[in-house]
Amino acid sequence: MTTHTNGSDHVLQLRVIVEAEDFDAAIAFYRDALGLPEEIAFEGEGDARVSILDAGRATLEISNPAQKRMIDQVETGKRQGSGVRLAFEVTDGRGVTKRLAAAGATIIGEPRETPWRSLNSRLGASAGLQITVFEELEKVHDRAQRTGFGTADAR
């Protein structure tokens, strides 16, 4: 059962569904190399397979085109393609980036400190996804006190 923690009476979980042509490689990358524990898996007719991996707390980040361009520039030094990008908060950004590269990811942007005090790297990952690995270097409460940060409720 999903734990209800966000104050919503309607949404209990965000699940991102990815079709992977090489299912075993994707599982090896996301479950084994990145370390997302398998919550449950199913097998069905015609070799149908799915594995649901626990990625901790989920958020939906909505960015306008200017923000997307800025993040691409900060993380990689140039504009990246459009589409969905997954971001994983970790406790050792450099170590996880190295581990994922050893597991077959392509480093698009080496770990670097961002203007908002996180250590971010960008990788081309299994199942054709671009991912960001980020390590927070500052508490969210401290960041929210700086100009340009906060929530819509605080404005």
UniProtKB/TrEMBL annotation:
It holds the Pfam family Glyoxalase_6. Coiled coil: none annotated. Residues 7-136 form the VOC domain. SUPFAM superfamilies: Glyoxalase/Bleomycin resistance protein/Dihydroxybiphenyl dioxygenase (SSF54593). InterPro entries: Glyas_Bleomycin-R_OHBP_Dase (IPR029068), Glyoxalase_6 (IPR041581), VOC_core (IPR037523). PROSITE patterns: VOC (PS51819). This is VOC family protein.
